[in-house]
Every structure is written in C-alpha cells, then in structure tokens.
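Lecture notes, continued. The same structure-token format from the folding unit now serves as the input rather than the output. Read the line below as a description of shape only.
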C-alpha cells in the first residue's frame, strides 16, 4: 500500500486524512467508521472472512488502490443508530441488540414503535440494524436486508416464542423502545458486537436513526449487489 501511494504521489498520514484505507475485515471497518464518523470516507481491503463492507480483496490491492488514489471511487453516506438508556445517548454503526444475558434463558421484551406499544414478546433478543448492518447479525437471523440508500432500520426478534413477532422495517423519525419485562434478570445491551451495558428489569432502551452518517467509499463497479452475490451466493 505504501509503495502504491508513493508512486501515486499520495501522502500517508494519521493527521486529518482525506481518505481512510482499512486493511482488515468488517470489524476493523466498524472501528474506522467510529473513529472517523462524519469525517473522512473509509474504503476497505478485505483481510477478514466476509468483508461485506470492503471494496477490494487482497489480490486486488495494488490495482484497486491505484484507481482509488487516482480519485476513481464513490462515497456513499449511510445512516447510523442513536441508542439511549437512562439519559445517555451513544452511536452504533451496524446494530443494537437487546437480549438475554444468561445463555438459554428466555426473556420478556416489550416493544413500541413511535409511542405505539406492540406488546410483550418472549424471545432471546431483539435486533435493530442499519442498512449497512442489515447484512450482519440481522441477516443470519432471517431479518430483512436493506439495500444501501434506504433510510430506515430493520427490526427482528431472535428465536421469538410467538406466532406474531415479525420483522419490520422502520422509517426515520420513529423510535423503537425496548423495555425489560423479565422479572428477575437484566438484559445485555450490545452495540456493534460489543457489550456496552445492561438493562435492568423495568428499564428501557430507545433506538432510532441518528443524524450522523458514515461515509463508505467504494470502487464504482463494486456495488451492494455485487457484494451481495459474492458474499451470500
């Protein structure tokens, strides 16, 4: 990468970059999105497993970066999630999961959208995902996949003990509020795969599309659908 950058007359710097190049998997991409949220666009070379967010594979690194350093890339602004608990608000890039903190223990989750209660669902967890996160845990849970460009979040339950709990796509402006109605155990609060807190019995977490955007850079010919075909064929 350094050699290609030198040949292209591109300076590699950690100081106020105009473009961030990530060598890693989707987890590394997520860390870069958090670090440069709303700043420099992020483009990835996949050295992980799926690498759905990455634009290039290792074999394509040199030719791909030559194109990138010549300005041959597009930038896609994608929505994030704001999640709030006890007055503290934080940002997630992929997803927010509220679920059982005890392995194999069913929990009671009350959920409401835009102030309208949808009842209590016994399940393992509930997932709220952005379009970029809809192809992660949400996809493996049979939740709806959102193409990039859709300004909405996907909501799905994990192993619901109910015939009425169905995945939903929620538009911007509607919050999803999840309340722990389990009498005796706290819930785990997980954001982008990291456990960030607990939800005590009777407490709630609200999730909605945030104002901040991640900036995903990609080669013009590497689209959402080309990634989708290669990753999940």
């Amino acid at each position: 990468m350094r050699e290609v950058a030198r040949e292209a007359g591109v300076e590699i710097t950690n100081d106020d970059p105009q473009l961030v190049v990530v060598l890693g998997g989707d987890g590394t991409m997520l860390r870069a999105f958090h670090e440069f949220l709303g700043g420099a666009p992020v483009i990835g070379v996949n050295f992980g497993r799926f690498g759905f967010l990455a634009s290039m594979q290792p074999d394509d690194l040199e030719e791909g970066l030559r194109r990138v350093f010549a300005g041959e890339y597009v930038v896609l602004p994608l929505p994030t999630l704001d999640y709030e608990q006890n007055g503290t608000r934080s940002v997630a890039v992929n997803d927010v999961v509220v679920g059982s903190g005890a392995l194999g223990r069913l929990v009671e989750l009350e959920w409401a959208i835009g102030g309208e209660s949808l009842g209590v669902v016994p399940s393992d967890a509930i997932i709220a995902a952005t379009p970029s996160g809809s192809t992660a845990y949400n996809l493996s849970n049979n939740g709806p996949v959102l193409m990039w460009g859709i300004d909405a979040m996907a909501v799905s339950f994990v192993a619901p003990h109910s015939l009425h709990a169905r995945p939903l796509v929620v538009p911007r402006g509607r919050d999803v509020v999840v309340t722990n109605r389990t009498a005796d155990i706290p819930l785990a609060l997980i954001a982008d795969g990291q456990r960030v807190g607990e939800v005590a019995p009777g407490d709630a977490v609200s999730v909605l599309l945030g104002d901040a955007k991640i900036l995903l850079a990609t080669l013009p010919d590497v689209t959402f659908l080309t990634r989708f075909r290669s990753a999940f064929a």
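Point for the exam: The two ends are 30 Å apart (CA to CA).
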